[in-house]
Structures are given as C-alpha cells and as structure tokens.
Design brief:
Mean pLDDT: 88
CATH class of the largest domain: Alpha Beta
CATH architecture of the largest domain: 3-Layer(aba) Sandwich
Largest sheet: 5 strands, parallel
Order of helices and strands: EHEHEHEHEHEEEEHHHEE
CATH topology of the largest domain: Rossmann fold
CATH superfamily of the largest domain: Response regulator
Radius of gyration: 18 Å
Strand content: 15-25%
Shape: elongated
Number of strands: 11
Structural class: alpha/beta
Number of domains: 2
Low-confidence stretches: none
Helix content: 40-55%
C-alpha cells in the first residue's frame, strides 16, 4: 500500500486529512516537526511527502532541502503561503507540487495521484531511453543526472524534468502549455507562469553565456526548443 508522510505541526490536520487519505486507500505516516519528519523518512521510506512550510525550529523550506539531500521522493507543499514568490521558491527547492491552504481534500488526492503517476512513469522507462546525449550534454534517466563535458550539473528535480522533456526531442518546439503539462501534469495546462522563470534558471546552469543561449532556445510566440 502506498505510504504518505504528512509533516505538519497542525494536529487537527493530521487527524482529519490522515483519516481522509486512509479512507482513500493510503497508509499515512505522521510527523509534527521537520526533525521528526526526517527521522520517519529515513526509517520508513515513504512514497510521497506532504510538507507544511510554517513550522517551528526547522521550517518546511529547510526540511525540503534536507529531504532532497537524501532522496528524490515526491514532495507536495501544503501551506497558507500561496503567493507566487513562495510557490517558485518551493519548486526551486525541489517540490513536485504546491497546494495553498485552505484546500479541498478531493483535489489534494487528485494532485497526489498525478504526482505518483508521473513518478511511476519515470521509473518504468525502457533501458533504451535511459541515456540522452546532445552536444556536450548527457542526461542519465536512471541516475537523474545531467553532465556537461563530463561534469555534473546541479539541477533541481523540476529543472531536470524540464531539460529532460526538451532533450528528448532536439529541435522540436514545445509550447508553454506542452511543457507545463509534461513537467507539472495536465491539471496545470492553463497555468504557464512558471515556465519563463524555470527556463531562466536552467539557462544559468547549462549555458556558457545565459544571455546568448546556444542550446535552450526561444521561439517567439511559440515556445522553446533544445538545440538544432
């Protein structure tokens, strides 16, 4: 049975959401602080983490960073801080989704299913598709590793997925909607506000001169393409 780790200092949320998720068929693990969450994560190896931002001592931002040092387990932020800068910060730290409070439990379950489905699809790829090579870049899907001229690039999980989509078909122009759907899921197809920011961050990490990109190219009015 799929295990979900809920890290939040709101005991009423643990009780209500925990029961709802268990009724939906999930096993729920509970932690009321970032420190406790890391301990449970290490011991139980859950399939997905639900993480609050506003917690005492170790907040959700730091907890997310610590989790990403240990594993690429999917992370969904649950937080009252729903402004765009906070959402972008969450994605930069490696979150897979960001759900502002208050939220409906059925919508959260739908988002959980979408994130788990993407993770399962990534794990089920055929060996022949595991290595993508273009110019100085090599993307290893088994290790979730990208190198340039043999040197590893420090990409967040979202930056990695964006580059993976673009490198999968060099020369093809992907629209903003296609990239959002491929990276975040079809439920986000109408929200393309993240793409320009993530392209900017990705260029700073992969391009010799981000102001004059050679690989991640803009097709004005259409979208983005990689190479060719």
């Amino acid at each position: 049975m799929t295990q979900i780790l809920l890290i939040d200092d709101d005991r009423s949320l643990h009780r209500l959401l925990g029961q709802y998720l268990e009724d939906a068929g999930y096993t729920v693990l509970h932690a009321e602080s970032g420190q406790e969450g890391l301990r449970v994560l290490f011991e139980a190896r859950p399939d997905l983490v639900l993480l609050d931002v506003m917690m005492a001592r170790m907040d959700g931002w730091e907890t997310c960073q610590r989790i990403r040092e240990l594993t690429d387990v999917p992370i969904i932020f649950l937080t009252a801080r729903g402004d765009e800068p906070d959402r972008l910060k969450g994605f930069r730290l490696g979150a897979d989704d960001y759900v502002p409070k208050p939220f409906s439990f059925p919508e959260l379950v739908a988002r959980i299913e979408a994130v788990l489905r993407r993770a399962a699809q990534a794990a089920a790829r055929k060996p022949a598709e595991d290595i993508l090579v273009y110019g100085p870049f090599q993307l290893d899907r088994l290790r979730c590793l990208v190198t340039r001229d043999g040197e590893p690039l420090d990409l967040t999980p979202t930056e990695y997925r964006l580059l993976e989509v673009l490198m999968s078909q060099p020369g093809r122009v992907f629209s903003h909607e296609q990239l959002v759907t491929a990276v975040w899921g079809p439920e986000y197809a109408d929200d393309t506000s993240y793409i320009r920011r993530y392209v900017w961050h990705l260029r700073r990490k992969i391009e010799p001169d981000p102001e004059h990109p050679r690989y991640l190219l803009t097709e004005r009015g259409f979208g983005y393409r990689f190479g060719e």
